[in-house]
Design brief:
- The protein is an alpha/beta fold.
- It has 13 helices and eight strands.
- The chain has a single domain, classed as Rossmann fold, CATH 3.40.50.300.
- It holds the Pfam family AAA_31.
Length: 271
């Protein structure tokens, strides 16, 4: 039962797809930056042992003294792990390779699927004054991903515009249904965002047509194009919206952020 004396919980969105290389981390980082531009305060939680979201937001490996691993395995308050980034109001809970062993270490814990859920609802989260929490999931249907699905209000699925793109979705949808039945009945699918889309390519156009025919309104109107600036930005440890604000990739992620914010009423409140 919620405590009426506490602030409203931030909107928690899991960015996930068990298929690798579809743009999960890129989407988490740049969607977060887009939401910040709309006036939101956003936390990205890095749940991938590769720590790419942490690197992409400028947190060097040696500066990750407290990480998501400590939050999940050692019951450290998430506010102790959170770090600021070069972008005001964009925060990161970093990850490193320690998280690779989390699945094995979590198995014996009775609350193994709810550790992130509880961490994001602890009293210390209020002090961060967040509007959104974006969970950057690993490319697998592991216990880390299950933690994200149990903690989240909704799921955002990046889908690469390539052959077999829709094939991997069935297992993810099954997992989401199982989590709904067993642990998080309110979990909903926020939507599917097409990434790495090349409008000149017949295959990309066919994937889009198939996705919209199969998933209907679940597919965001915004499409993220294949864009060299989006690919370059992580090597400069910043979102593409900061690296090249006028690029096609930046425009797409701004549009995606606005589309998401309108759904949640944020745009009306802030714009």
């Amino acid at each position: 039962m919620s405590d009426p004396s506490r602030p409203k919980l931030p909107r928690i969105v899991a960015v996930t797809n068990q298929k690798g290389g579809v743009g999960k981390t890129t989407t988490a980082i740049n969607l977060a930056a887009g939401l910040v531009e709309l006036g939101a305060r956003v936390l990205v939680v890095d749940l991938d042992p590769q720590g790419n979201a942490s690197t992409g937001l400028g947190i060097e490996a040696q500066d990750r003294a407290v990480t998501t691993y400590d939050v999940l395995l050692d019951d450290v308050p998430i506010s102790d792990a959170v770090q600021t980034t070069i972008i005001e109001n964009l925060l990161i809970c970093p990850a490193n390779a320690d998280l690779a062993s989390a699945d094995i270490e979590l198995v014996a814990n009775e609350k193994r699927s709810f550790l992130l859920h509880d961490a994001l609802r602890a009293i210390d989260i209020d002090n961060l004054k967040l509007d959104y929490v974006l969970l950057d999931c690993p490319p697998s249907l592991s216990l880390l991903t299950v933690n994200a699905l149990c903690a989240a209000h909704s799921v955002l699925i990046p889908l690469q515009s390539e052959f077999f793109a829709l094939e991997g979705l069935s297992q993810l949808m099954l997992t989401i249904r199982q989590v709904r039945e067993a642990a998080n009945p309110a979990l909903r699918i926020e939507g599917v965002v097409l990434t790495m889309h090349d409008a000149r390519n017949n295959l990309s156009q066919q994937v889009e047509a198939d996705a919209r025919a199969t998933l209907g309104d679940l597919v965001f109107k915004t499409i993220v194009p294949r864009n060299v600036r989006v690919s370059e930005a992580p090597s400069y440890a910043m979102p593409v919206l900061t690296y090249d604000s006028a690029s096609k990739g930046s425009e797409a992620y701004r549009a995606l952020a606005l589309e998401l914010a309108v759904r949640h009423g944020l745009a009306q409140e802030r714009i």
